[in-house]
Amino acid sequence: MKKIQKPLELKRLLPAGGLAFLFCSFISQAFSTSLAEAFDLESDLRFEMRHHALHKAGRESLRKSSGQLLLFLESRESPVGIDLEDYLSLKNDIFDKMFTDSIDLPSLVDVAQTNLNDPSSHPIWRDYCLQKYGLLLSHPEIGERLRTPLFNDLWRYMQGEETGMTGTALLAAIRAWEARGDWKGEDFAVTSKTVGESAMLCAREVNNPLMDRMTALQVASLLGYSEARDYSIELLQSSPASVPLMLRSSAVAALGIFADGRDADLVRRYRLSADIRLRAAAVTALYKIQQQSSAKN
């Protein structure tokens, strides 16, 4: 019986140019794969081919295949041969491509809202969907009927309804507020003031996840919320052992955002820190402070 060759010996079995032929065949298949084929949930196509088919597609192709793409977005299990990280990456890219070309926006709103509010949906995908709220609420074609429930959701997550989601909600709120201005709901309003207040509540709560606290402090600072500067100074003047290192880095960065010359000496203390993250934050913050000082002179 003929001995079966090992995969590593494949190149010995191929005639001259055989590997080049296989490579060209792979490229040819990637270019000829349609969106409908690439995102058929029963397909065993590799991630690279699906990714290429999506990113070479024009608006008309996306429009024609929108039904299949939405089925992929709504699916809960990755297709055969696609690992979870690549699967979620494809879903994220599909959403962004359809959004950019304004294809079936109401369905995209439904995908984002349904998955965000379903605890059984994958946590990374839920976080992605919450990020999309900032995009959706900034789109001029999303009317009030669709915006209202999105803002209602955003407000709840801004208030810390679910641990680990507050920072993402605050970032989405900034984007929505920058595009839409103030939004008044039945019993709340999304304004620079209310976003800043929510951000500071999150940043000050020591039991909140560190990433949420860091993000919240940056959000409040970007909004020019004065309490964020005061709290950053408080953190940097506290005992290092009492403040997580990354939160101190966030505080240094926040003072850079405010670029107040009065904070230069405090920031300068961290320029020679043993930790590279603190050093980098301090150098950047000092540069911003110096730039602001030069602009005033």
Give an overview in words.
The protein is mainly α and 297 residues long. The chain is built from 17 helices and 2 strands. Helix 6 (66-74) crosses helix 7 (84-100), helix 10 packs antiparallel against helix 11 and helix 13 (210-222) packs across helix 14 (226-237). The N and C termini lie far apart (88 Å).
Largest β-sheet summary: 2 strands, antiparallel
Question: Looking at the structure, what is the overall shape?
Answer: elongated
Helix content: 55-70%
The strand count comes to: 2
Strand order of the largest sheet: 1-2
| Quaternary organization | single chain
* Ends apart, CA distance between termini: 88 Å
Task: Supply Rg.
Answer: 25 Å
**Rounded mean pLDDT score:** 88
Number of helices: 17
What order do the SSEs take from the amino end to the carboxyl end, as H and E? HHHHHHHHHHHEEHHHHHH
Portion in beta strands: under 5%
Poorly predicted tracts of residues: 1-14, 19-30
Structural class: mainly alpha
Secondary-structure blueprint:
Layout: H1 10-13, H2 18-32, H3 35-38, H4 47-56, H5 59-64, H6 66-74, H7 84-100, H8 105-116, H9 123-138, H10 144-158, H11 166-180, E1 183-184, E2 189-190, H12 192-204, H13 210-222, H14 226-237, H15 245-258, H16 264-268, H17 276-296
Antiparallel strand pairs: 1-2
Short description:
The protein is mainly α. The chain has helices at 10-13, 18-32, 35-38, 47-56, 59-64, 66-74, 84-100, 105-116, 123-138, 144-158, 166-180, 192-204, 210-222, 226-237, 245-258, 264-268, 276-296; strands at 183-184, 189-190.
